[in-house]
Amino acid sequence: MIVLRSEGALELLTGETGFAELVAGGLDPGSSFRLADIGCSGGIDASFRAFGRRLAAWAFDIDAAECARLQAIETLPGIRYIAGRVGLSDGHPFLLARGGRGWTEVNPWNRLSVAVTQRFRQRRAAPQPAPAPAPAPGLIDLTSFFATEGVTDLDFLKIDVDGADFAILSGLDGKLAPLGVLAVGIEVNFYETDSPTDHTLRNIDRFLRREGYDLFGLTVRHYSTSALPSRYAFADLPAQGRFGRPLQGDALHVRDVCAPAKAETAASLPAAKLAKVAAIFSLAGLPDCAAEVLIDFRDRLAPAFEVDAALDLLTGMAREEGMPTRYRDYCAAFAEDAASFYQRRDQPPAPAPAAGPPRGGDDAREVPAESPAIDVLLRENAELRRDLSALHGSRSWRLTAPLRRAADRLRSIMKSVG
Question: For 374-411, what is each residue's pLDDT tens digit?
Fold first, then answer.
């Protein structure tokens, strides 16, 4: 099944959950998929719920009320929501290197059309009483927290805090491998300066490659300037647009266990870790990378699940109309250079879908929130728009396009005759 996105979701986790559910069922009793989610407003990404009761998660957010709300409605026993500001203690070398600079000093947010739209809406809205100031959240040092909680193994680290993301990641320098982290999903900026401490894709990618990860996914959210605004990508929700400068996105870095250069690392991983790497790839919409893990480590994974059946399941994610459904037949068709592996000449390329849930810029949280009821409606609206966007980009929608055009012409003829 395709899962809906939560507010704190990674745009890259757009795959189906069936293979991850298969992996979860093959884990040894007592083992789990372990997630650390920093910036969990709206809840952890629904994709991870494919692991069900095998999911253990520590989810952090500065909003204590939101953490309490999420914990009250949580249905899985292994998920904890922790209120606090994850960050670095004063005097940390990373903070000293920044020299007191703010996190978003060169953010072009105030020049963008989304910021202007929000100001327009504020002026038209009825005045609202200023909310009572929230108490300052306590600082949480991840290394100390994990040591206190006895957390010695993690599978996935997600960071999205609108500002100190790279600082938090840098605080784990040299600690990701000992923790067993298989993948890191993090929001990245495409602005900032050339400082080595700025929260940019370049700095994050360089850091994670030093830690042994490779880039496997990247999204880009475009924001137009107010000088010539773009149509927004979502209904009645100012956020990214159809065009504009690349402002932010999400990056996914994973340990490439199939790379020859990483053979020693892969050999040191338990079979369950290898299966989880494949599950992460599948959740990120990368069935090819998941299949490569299954092929390369078939003998080690066979005790956990039927590998051939799992490959057929991944083939179902990869195949398009007219392609074989079984993995072996699919590969045989590819080896024969089958026409089904090429774009049809009479079929235009699928339009690129809007990238994920709507996001503001790093300064967006400074804008007063609208009423809770409106906020819920906007979220539901955004989810429906994303579903519609996915439908319009689907194979079935493209294949039935000629039929819809013919039906439209027929209705037009009938209307003119009537």
Answer: 444 444 544 554 454 444 444 454 455 555 555 555 55
Using the predicted structure, report yes or no on whether residue 15 has a pLDDT greater than 50. yes
Residue 417 and residue 327 share a domain: no
- pLDDT tens-digit map of 154-196: 999 999 998 999 999 999 999 999 999 999 999 999 998 899 9
CA of 33: how far to CAs of 44, 81, 82, 196, in Å? 13, 16, 18, 33
Which pTM was predicted? 0.81
Kindly state whether residue 5 falls inside one of the protein's structural domains: no
Tokens read off for 144: 């100390």
Q: Is residue 2 part of a domain?
A: no
Domain count, the chain: 2
Q: Are 250 and 388 members of one domain?
A: no
- Are 2 and 283 contacting, i.e. CB atoms less than 8 angstroms apart? no
What's the domain range around 395? 372-418
- Round to whole Å and give the CA distance between 82 and 64: 8
d(CA 192, CA 98): 13
